[in-house]
Design brief:
Blueprint: H1 14-19, E1 27-31, E2 36-37, H2 42-52, E3 57-61, H3 70-73, E4 81-85, H4 91-95, H5 121-132, E5 138-141, H6 142-147, E6 152-154, E7 159-161, H7 164-168, E8 172-174, H8 179-190, E9 204-209, E10 222-224, H9 228-233, H10 235-249, E11 256-261, E12 264-268, H11 277-284, E13 291-292, H12 303-308, E14 311-313, E15 315-316, H13 327-331, E16 336-337, H14 340-352, E17 359-360, E18 362-364, E19 374-375, H15 378-383, E20 398-399, H16 403-413, E21 420-421, H17 444-455, E22 460-466, H18 470-476, H19 482-498, E23 503-510, H20 517-529, E24 537-539, H21 547-554, H22 570-578, H23 588-597, H24 601-608, E25 627-628, E26 631-632, H25 635-645
Parallel strand pairs: 1-3, 1-4, 4-5, 5-8, 10-11, 14-18, 17-21, 22-23, 23-24
Antiparallel strand pairs: 2-13, 6-7, 8-9, 9-12, 11-12, 15-16, 19-20, 25-26
Helix pairs in contact: 2-8, 10-21, 16-17, 17-19, 23-24
């Protein structure tokens, strides 16, 4: 095996700095993750962009925050600033389950061990740096900083927190994917512009004294939010704030946002327009080693790296706008797609890895089948303020042609070193159902799904209907479950045509705002009727900067300000979750009791009938019958089937 020189990685130690012959470091990056030099890891991307702009960069990965703080001091004072990120995940999501239980592993740490980063890592790291180097600017970024840039509800402390800038003491925040603001910032710094003068760069946020005038920019209008103190006193004002932030975060021509926090004013500059093909290619084409730093060899693999090692990311962004998801808040709703040439270049790199066995684990993005999708008339998109392009209906201006993806998959399939390339990312199945998506031209949707099912499924295809209740799905910004039935019919026909037996794996969420216990009982009954035994289920976790989290905290929908029921206590959440596991004997008596209380005996028959202990597991479709164990079919199921036939 050919050993690569240590200078192929960005330096983690002073010895590595000396090997490069550097006498001074321009920027020191502090990260909560182990350093993996790969385009799927934010610290590597940011470090390589800085290097590309001519800056000398060193990384402090997972510094010890509990000793004499030597890790924070080892590179000394950088010339320009410290960059701080908690890593690829919010540190609290990384540490705790939906029930606030401490996780025993960390996928972004060598060896998979937990305990190598603090809670609220961005705040902890920034405070330490400001104490050690009070006159050196601290720039924070990454998903934790991005989603906590304004007053937000923090589930783990059950409290409303101010902007992370106020808590951390950092000088500036970059939100979203930082490629564009970072390059502009670095170019100005190279020209001699002081850090404190970088106040009109898009997609940044900072605090300033309330009495001072806002930095001038003749192209920006300013929208003022209710102050942090007002939000603490009035949940409705907090909910109304969220709507403004979400709308402005997803516009091409957005307004600047301000919010008062004590005697300071938070200023959030508008985002950049979505990256063009050449810009996103530039980020992915940087000279990554695509490997963890060699220092981790003895500690073991980084699990998150092993998961994506032989995968290829085709695009960023998601126009789904799901209420529980943070992707659009961080990456944006508009899709930034790489060129086919850039993607194939990465396929060549993956295939040249000495451990590559011919199988690409994933070709995809946040939603796999959104590559190359955009507005037909982009002048309409420029004025759009909707948080979703496909809810409540698919926008007539959205080009949902899947032809480019089908062609890309086929080209990857024809690569001489690729035996099989899988689509492991979730697919938006609703885009492939003509009854829901009317924008299907020349049959390209059918061609795509047949290509995926016959060539790119590794035994099971993951899709996420999330629920069966239309009322809950409306809160989620997801389509009616009847479209999942339609998709399954299409999927089963393709399987039958090609003699395949690949499972369709649906994902569901319990305890989501808008979902009541009876909705979960109906979900269990309907999915059982379809032949599913649900194994992978998720309990809703409130994370900052989502519609669902605002509902969880305030009890109202931020767009209507009308009440929405939410399961909040441990008992309420566990009750909803238990319905997923109707097939476990220990849950039978509890389910009977709950459904008798709810006066739903027909669901008891469906879930716990004589065949309950021998369910039709493997995702196979049961033959429709007009009865259930000799009893009349429940009305809700009969009506559902009638709708599906229509």
């Amino acid at each position: 095996m050919e050993l690569r020189p240590i200078t192929d990685w960005l330096p983690l130690t002073m010895k590595e700095v000396e090997k490069r012959g550097w006498e001074e470091i321009d920027v020191v990056l502090i990260s909560g993750d182990s350093y993996v030099d790969h385009p799927s890891f934010g610290t590597a991307v940011i470090g390589r962009i800085m290097e590309d702009e001519g800056f000398k960069v060193a990384i402090v990965a997972q510094p010890n925050w509990q000793d004499d703080l030597r890790d924070f001091k080892k590179f000394g004072r950088p010339k320009y600033f410290f960059g701080v990120t908690a890593g690829c995940m919010d540190s609290m999501v990384n540490h705790y389950t939906a029930n606030r239980r401490l996780r025993s592993t960390d996928a972004y740490t060598a060896g998979g061990e937990s305990g190598f980063r603090p809670d609220y890592a961005t705040v902890t790291y920034s405070k330490i740096l400001k104490e050690l180097f009070p006159d050196v600017p601290v720039l924070i970024g990454g998903i934790e900083a991005s989603l906590r840039r304004v007053t937000h509800y923090d589930y783990w402390s059950d409290a409303l927190k101010p902007s992370i800038l106020e808590e951390s003491g950092a000088d500036m925040l970059v939100y979203g994917m930082g490629d564009q603001p970072l390059r502009d910032m670095l170019q100005l710094l190279k020209k001699g512009v002081p850090f404190e003068s970088l106040k009109t760069i898009k997609q940044t946020a900072f605090l300033m004294p309330k009495e001072e005038p806002l930095p001038k920019n003749k192209n920006w209008e300013t929208v003022e939010l209710s102050s942090h103190e007002t939000c603490l006193e009035d949940k409705i004002k907090f909910a109304a704030n969220f709507k403004v932030v979400e709308v402005e975060s997803n516009k091409w021509q957005a307004n600047r946002i301000t919010q008062d926090i004590g005697d300071q004013r938070l200023v959030i500059n508008p985002p950049y327009k979505t990256m063009e093909e050449g810009e996103i290619d530039q980020s992915f084409d940087l000279p990554y080693t695509r490997l963890p730093h060699p220092k981790y060899k003895r500690r073991g693999n980084v699990p998150a790296f092993e998961m994506i090692r032989f995968s290829v990311n085709t695009h960023r962004g998601c126009f789904g706008g799901c209420s529980f998801c943070t992707i659009s808040a961080h990456q944006g709703k508009f899709i930034a797609s790489r060129s086919k040439e850039s993607i194939m270049k990465e396929v060549d790199q993956v295939a040249s890895d000495e451990n590559f066995k011919g199988y690409i684990s994933d070709i995809g993005g946040p939603s796999a089948n959104m590559y190359k999708m955009k507005g037909i008339d982009e002048s309409i998109c420029a004025k759009c303020s909707s948080p979703s392009c496909i809810h409540p209906v698919v926008c007539s201006n959205l080009d949902t042609d899947h032809s480019d993806m089908t062609a890309l998959y086929r080209e990857i399939d024809n690569h001489p070193k690729v035996k099989k390339a899988f689509v492991g990312s979730g697919i938006r199945y609703d885009l492939l159902v003509d009854d829901f998506n009317k924008n299907n031209k020349n049959g390209n949707h059918e061609e795509y799904i047949e290509q995926v099912v016959t060539r790119h499924v590794s035994g099971r295809l993951k899709v996420a209907p999330e629920h069966t209740s239309d009322a809950t799905l409306r809160v989620m910004r997801k389509p009616s479950f009847k479209y999942f039935h339609k998709f399954k019919e299409k999927y089963d026909k393709i399987q039958e045509k090609h003699g395949l037996k690949q499972q369709l794996i649906p994902y569901f969420i319990s305890s989501h705002p808008g979902c009541e216990e009876q909705d979960m009982a109906n979900l269990a009954a309907e999915t059982k009727d379809m032949g599913f035994q649900l194994e992978q289920v998720q309990d809703f976790t409130p994370t900052p900067m989502t519609v669902a989290t605002v509902i969880y905290y305030t009890g109202v929908h931020p767009y209507t300000l009308k009440p929405v029921y939410t399961a909040k206590t441990r008992d309420q959440k566990q009750s909803q979750h238990r319905f997923f596991f109707w097939y476990k004997k220990e849950n039978h008596q509890w389910i009977k009791n709950q459904l008798m209380k709810a006066q739903r005996p027909e669901l008891i028959d469906i879930l716990l009938g004589k065949n309950a202990d021998k369910p039709n597991f493997k995702g196979r479709k049961k033959k429709p019958s007009a009865s259930n164990n000799g009893k009349p079919m429940p009305k809700w199921l009969e009506e559902r089937r009638k709708k599906d036939k229509k």
